[in-house]
Amino acid sequence: MKWVRVQTGEGIRWGYHLQDGRIQTVVGEPWGGFADQGAPVSASQVGLSVPVFPRKLIAIGRNYAKHAAERGNEVPAEPLFFLVSPTALIGDGEAIRLPNREDRIDHEAELAVVIGTGGKDISEENAWDHIFGYACAMDITNRVQQEKDGQFTRSKSYDTFKPIGPWIETDWQPSDRIIRLWVNQELKQEGSTSEMVHSIPRLIATVSAVFPLESGDVILTGTPDGVGPLAPGDNVEMEIEGLGRLSHPVVG
Questions:
Q1: Per-domain residue ranges for the chain?
Q2: Are the beta carbons of 230 and 216 closer than 8 angstroms?
Q3: Distances (CA, A) of 58 to 20, 79, 83, 204, 247
Q4: pTM
Q5: Is the pLDDT of residue 92 over 90?
């Protein structure tokens, strides 16, 4: 099932795609109790919003060996994770804004994992039971600030730096799926989710050992190699096999 968040006359509502392409809006949240609200509507009748707005947006660094190598880094023995501001999230088609044109600002294509059932100290064996669904995502990064700070939060938290969507898919399996990214229709990144150094269950177990994961929280699972700079006027697109596709203009 493909879940979205849409703009209605009563504010932002959750909804899900029907087989005919229309959207059925609901009252409540998909991981809790919800009920259908009104008649289904066509996608053109509503404005799509960011498909999830988490309390916590957690990113994983250096989770693909080739990407770690291209940045001159070692592969971490344990998952390397950090928090990013959820206000950086944007939905499919929205513009990515580059606030510092003189800095190198890179694209990173990633698989996003959305938590459905929260928990603390979740075991790897039980981690799959806590996943609600998956989405495509990009992790836009100001490399100059990242290297200056020695940590990641500021360089990755600017407004529009975290595209996600176009929906959350609940009926999809993440094993050995191809991730691709293009800039101006030129292929820049291509890898497989099977190349992750640390598996999705291990990421969930490691993060939840530090603080509780809550329904709607998002984990960005790392990027394959091939990251590179964006510039105003570019168009950046990415897709994950069987999951979806994002497309975004880049502006200054």
A1: 2-48, 57-251
A2: no
A3: 34, 12, 5, 10, 22
A4: 0.96
A5: yes
